[in-house]
Amino acid sequence: MVVIDVFAKMRGQAPAGVSAYDADYVAVGYAKRLADHYGVAVVLVHHVRKAGSEDFLTEVSGTNGIAGAADATLVLKRARGQADGILHVTGRDVDEAEYALSFQPASGAWHLLDGPVTDHTVSDTRATILRYVRAHPGAKPKDMAGELPHVDMDTIRRTCNRMADAGQLTKDPGGRYYPDTDTRTDGTQEVSALSGCPVTPSDQHEHPGQPELELSGLSGADEAEGMAE
Asked: In whole angstroms, what is the distance from residue 112 CA to residue 122 CA?
């Protein structure tokens, strides 16, 4: 991997008579041709605009030609004075994603944080509840009180309800909370014979000579360099 820090130091003069977009596209294109020819990753470290935007691609300094010529674009956003940041990734051959990172001053490196980005961008109370419920699916608000000693029980209950409304958690009829991606049961469903219980669900039938029941729907699909590669 070759890292060029910063891109502006090596891009050279813009070709005469071309638009700003074409000049940016050509400059990044030089690096891309080298990367393709030698089969290496070339990472261009570049700056972002001071003005923020909901679309992180528009924050890349210059025209859209920079991101357009690169195979992938990564933008690291961090509020001034904060240790945590979000790495936004998009590109031709990568899945668009976001990663929560924390800067380690001792090593000068960024550390990948556990859990999805939402765990680190929500309020401290919500983040604590999310982490607890992921570690203890089916927890009730009273179970979370030990993790939030400075928050009263009514506030915990209201926060859990709001998180369920926002889709961050799922609540079952018994008042238990689960991560929004987990499969849940309210405890009243029948258990198949494979678990050792003699009850056979009504939608499955035993057949002579069939030692096992066919099960379906139990699997689910599981749902990344500098500036550009």
From this structure: 17
In 3D space, the residue among 121, 164, 127 whose CA is nearest the CA of residue 144 turns out to be 127
> Could you give the domains of the chain?
1-70 (no CATH), 73-117 (no CATH), 122-179 (1.10.10.10)
> CA-CA distances (angstroms) from residue 47 to 8, 118, 145?
9, 25, 44
Q: How far is CA 144 from CA 42, 152, 171, 177, 221, in A?
A: 47, 11, 14, 11, 30
Tokens of 96: 């668009």
104-146 pLDDT, tens digit per residue, is 888 988 888 877 776 666 567 787 888 899 999 999 999 998 8
At 51-105, the pLDDT tens digits run 666 677 778 888 888 888 899 999 988 766 555 788 999 998 888 888 888 888 8
Residue whose C-alpha is closest to residue 44's, from 91, 14, 11: 11
Note whether 114 and 106 are within 8 A (CB): no
